[in-house]
Specification:
The complex is a heterodimer of chains A (about 110) and B (about 230). Chain A is α/β, with parallel strands linked by helices and about 110 residues long. Chain A is built from 5 helices and 4 strands, in the order E-H-E-H-E-H-H-E-H. Helix content of chain A is about 40%, strand content about 20%. The radius of gyration of chain A is 14 Å and the shape is globular. The N and C termini of chain A lie far apart (about 40 Å). Chain B is rod-shaped and about 135 Å long. The chains are: A alpha/beta (about 110), B mainly alpha (about 230). Chain A: It comes from Candidatus Eubacterium avistercoris.
Amino acid sequence: MYKIAVLGPYDSIYGFSTLGLDIIPVQDAKTGAETLRKVADSAYAVIYITEGLAAELADEIEKYKEKMMPSIILIPGISGNTGAGVENVKKCVEKAVGSDIIFGEK
Amino acid sequence: MASTQVNPTRMELTRLKKKLVTAVRGHKLLKDKRDELMRQFLDLIRENMELRLKVEEGIKAANANFVIAKASMSNESLHTALMVPKQGVYLEAGKKNVMSVDIPVFEYKTRTADENDIYSYGFAYTSSDLDGAVKSLADVLPDMLKLAEMEKACQLMAAEIEKTRRRVNALEHVIIPETQESIKYITMKLDENERSTQIRLMKVKDMMLEQAHNYSDKIQGYPVEIETVS
């Protein structure tokens, strides 16, 4: 049985608590890295993380990319969409194909 | 180019020939694996992109709703309303094997039977905007979970494709040509050795015949004899 966590600044994520996801408010990148590690090592299969926070924890997130668990997914925070999530999908194509041939023209 | 030192022996030749056969077969199989992975990956990544745009749109809308809800309520009452969640979501995680890549499959369960049991507060002291906000977020949740599954699958497959592609290229451009070159080198070296032995044997035979019959003396004597006859 796995749980789902949402990481980010409190204002961006408080809504998710009503749905039954565990919200873990994180203010700055320093505590964020530690929290992410702690959360990733416990029984969470999916970790949603706001784009703003994810930008500061890119190295940490990279480590979990090739593991099956947990799945770390970027979501837009309250301040709006930075496009980091879409960028990640494009990077994925680039990694597999060599260059972005699908979404490149958009 | 035999850049690495190879022993020009028959044993080595047999070993290299076997290696070449394995390498060619491995190359073909890996190439097939890469092509199939790529085909599935391209389908999946397109779906992933669509879903991501949809989810981001949904969350953005929900966030806007929450801002409106927050504006019409005091911070304290909002926090109190959302403090103790009623609903809980748990995941049952399995895995699916796609071309030897393990990708996760999530199945989610809610704590209470009714999935829409999401309002953790009484309606008396909260604004109705909050209800809408919570509902809009709840509507995105199934898509968010699907996105989690799909995006992970895409990441894992991308990593696997990269690995496979490197292996294919290494076999195609390094291992196979190098082995072929080594085989050629050994074959030529062995042939050369054989010719050399052959020539040596012929030479030795000549010398032995020479010793036994003294041909050179006879050949020297020959023209003299012919001269006398004519």
